[in-house]
């Protein structure tokens, strides 16, 4: 078995971190991997993406939120699937996190855009 070169490995790891921004992917992980020691160790290893030289490659801040918090058992337990009254499996905690993060991201984008408009307006004066 040959190991991938550093560039390929980095790209694969970045793809995984990027996919953490998708709640459906996080749901998949929780079904199969949240209790796996090796998975948790790998999440801890991937924390290097939160450091300045690498964070610039991550386009979705929600991915960084999950990357940081999935290393903590309490957070993973909080995201466990729950059954609804009609027998459907649903994750209300994950939906809540997703809604809050989307709200934050939308507000952040609006504030940033407003700041850019203001700076542009001041530059033109």
TrEMBL record:
UniProt KW keywords: Activator, Nucleus, Transcription, Transcription regulation
Biological-process GO terms, alphabetical: regulation of DNA-templated transcription
Pfam family, one: Med31
Main location: nucleus
GO MF terms held by the record: transcription coregulator activity
PANTHER family, alphabetized: MEDIATOR OF RNA POLYMERASE II TRANSCRIPTION SUBUNIT 31 (PTHR13186)
Function: Component of the Mediator complex, a coactivator involved in the regulated transcription of nearly all RNA polymerase II-dependent genes. Mediator functions as a bridge to convey information from gene-specific regulatory proteins to the basal RNA polymerase II transcription machinery. Mediator is recruited to promoters by direct interactions with regulatory proteins and serves as a scaffold for the assembly of a functional preinitiation complex with RNA polymerase II and the general transcription factors.
Family membership: Belongs to the Mediator complex subunit 31 family.
Subunit structure: Component of the Mediator complex.
Listed name of the protein: Mediator of RNA polymerase II transcription subunit 31
Species per Swiss-Prot/TrEMBL record: Hexamita inflata
Lineage of source species: Eukaryota, Metamonada, Diplomonadida, Hexamitidae, Hexamitinae
């Amino acid at each position: 078995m040959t190991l991938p070169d550093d560039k390929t490995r980095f790209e694969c790891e970045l793809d995984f971190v990027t996919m953490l921004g998708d709640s459906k992917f996080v749901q998949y992980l929780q079904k199969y991997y949240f209790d796996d020691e090796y998975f948790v160790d790998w999440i801890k290893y991937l924390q290097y993406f939160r450091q300045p030289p690498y964070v610039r490659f991550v386009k979705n801040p929600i991915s960084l939120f999950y990357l940081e918090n999935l290393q903590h058992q309490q957070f993973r337990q909080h995201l466990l699937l729950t059954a609804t009254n009609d027998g459907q499996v649903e994750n209300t905690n994950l939906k809540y996190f997703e809604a809050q993060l989307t709200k934050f991201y939308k507000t952040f984008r609006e504030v940033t855009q407003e700041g850019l408009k203001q700076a542009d307006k001041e530059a033109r004066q």
